[in-house]
Amino acid sequence: MREVAIIGIGQTPVDEHWDKSLRELAGEAVLAALRDSGRETADGLFVGNMMSGILSKQESLGALIADWVGLRGIEAVKVEAACGSGAAALRTGLMAVRSGEMDCVIVAGVEKMTESLPVETTAALATAADADYESAQGVSFVALNALIMRRYLFEYGWNHTDFAPFSINAHANAVHNPFARLREAITEKGYHQARMVADPINLLDASPTGDGAAALILVPVDTLYPDASRPTIVIAGSGMATDSVAVHDRYDPLFLSAAAKSAQKAYHQSGLGPQDIDFFELHDAFSIMSALSLEACGFAERGQGPRLALEGQITPKGSIPICTRGGLKARGHPVGATGVYQVVECVQQLRGEAGETQVDGAKIGMAQNIGGSGAVIVTHILRVK
Amino acid sequence: MREVAIIGIGQTPVDEHWDKSLRELAGEAVLAALRDSGRETADGLFVGNMMSGILSKQESLGALIADWVGLRGIEAVKVEAACGSGAAALRTGLMAVRSGEMDCVIVAGVEKMTESLPVETTAALATAADADYESAQGVSFVALNALIMRRYLFEYGWNHTDFAPFSINAHANAVHNPFARLREAITEKGYHQARMVADPINLLDASPTGDGAAALILVPVDTLYPDASRPTIVIAGSGMATDSVAVHDRYDPLFLSAAAKSAQKAYHQSGLGPQDIDFFELHDAFSIMSALSLEACGFAERGQGPRLALEGQITPKGSIPICTRGGLKARGHPVGATGVYQVVECVQQLRGEAGETQVDGAKIGMAQNIGGSGAVIVTHILRVK
DSSP strand E in chain A: where? Predict the structure, then answer.
């Protein structure tokens, strides 16, 4: 398989973009990534998106966005894996380059969530759950995560307050990220006082929705000219795995088996392990998911994820920094775009362009994107070549 | 790139399946394909589907179907390219095998269209058009095709009646296909008398919706043991291209440029040309599309598609048989599944298992799947090795 480098990144701020349509948002990120890469065209476009058909009455996003950015005619497709759509699109684009079919690929993630009524957005998000056996019972997506968190607190004896450092870290990092949705630091007191959404998940456990788009440019390393001005960043490992969509069907609802499997694939492919990872852009849609991801990927024992956070190990100066640009919690979670934002942020870290939240000497980063409450999970490991 | 063979096919009848959910439909086709291939598992599942989020309130189809067929945990994703989703999923799965990442891939297409109200299905289908510049004007999907057909009649001087042989051929072939939705022969008189849908498209110009699923099993040829009982069928060529989503944005609304580009890619990859193709499973969502596909792919001069049909060249005994198992017109058009049905039918022909509509000595077949009214088009060429 050909080794693949990421040579361009682009993103829009995550926000309420009332003045920008779906194609304009995506186009802004794609054109920024092309400019960043120095390329003007590509062989293919892979778009990660979950809800455009429901919320914007628009499918066929591949052709739509390709045409909008001036690349009418190129191969283009949309890839959907619920909230894991962005990384799924990256993985699909990666295979297109690895296969030898394409020499330059654009990966874009886009989601427009704030133009519809909140109840419509909530219903659209529920399509990530099992329609016949979960959503039909009236359980919302946040309620499913609340059930998982409640069980976790019971099983391992943690208090809700022990999850505060996850949200505090995310918000502290987002302050320095101009593309983040919530650039405000929060305090432990604020976390305690936040109003309840679905017990025990309160407003500061949950990531905000938003409109946003992010993009990447992939090429085979062997086609690159040496460029002393920038490190070459390669995708060293990539893996995807699934679990049951319904939480109650899982062998163990407190273990993200798809996270473990996809991380193992990425570790195996890269020849690396958790001890080699300098920072980890994980999928903190809810604070409980941060703990579960850290555990499934080998950074903490089962039930011990919160300890890492309480010890300060997840901050940019800690042993395993997470959500270094704000994570889903504070950068925001435009669902189908999130997986691409995570990788854009990994590239910023590996280029040394992460400013105040730069992880010193970062050479290897990992990104993990989760669809549903653990149903489909994609892990990528990036490294400086 | 590794050469890839199709070693298993499966399909459900296209029908109103009130007793089967989305996952049950897909599962039936996938399990049939696995049985046909002699395999019990796979490394990945690529699902072609367009409207499950809107009509069944269910996304994350990859994980959902993988789990349902007993393959919980494997990599799985949904691929969307409007009505071209099925072939787009095949192309994505093909690249996964060609890249060396996977040694056995399941490609499935599934769509459930008859459980919702007709007005809901029509609105969902309209998401294949440009939401901002077409659908917002109230133009339906069939109306867009009617505009194209009206212009074609004007430009080239054909009469509506000249398109009758396309529909008559499709229905005549479907009579012998147990999986077809409309297994009834039609006459020229019946075609004339059919009630109007959107002038000049009448009911017998238009393909019926339906619920259905189809599946394929892909493996690298170099992993196959010799099997004298069956020919080895390989994917010799594969190509995808796009055009503007909105018809009015095209340089020429009467030329399917994405069909031409994707066919050229498939021809180039396979070293074959239109003169080598023994039969062509094309995308006759509306009879006008048959003419445009034949022209764009090099089987007829511009404006001369109907002549092939009037001369009887498109029947199983003609020079370029099309829709040999009924096509979209009579087998039915469960949109996200259609592209996979077409390839299943190609395999039946190449195995010599097409019964009364067998094309004598068929060794090379082509399938072409169209998303929107020409916005995204995927072409595959299959041959007996």
Answer: 4-11, 44-48, 75-80, 105-111, 196-198, 201-202, 212-220, 233-242, 279-281, 364-371, 376-384
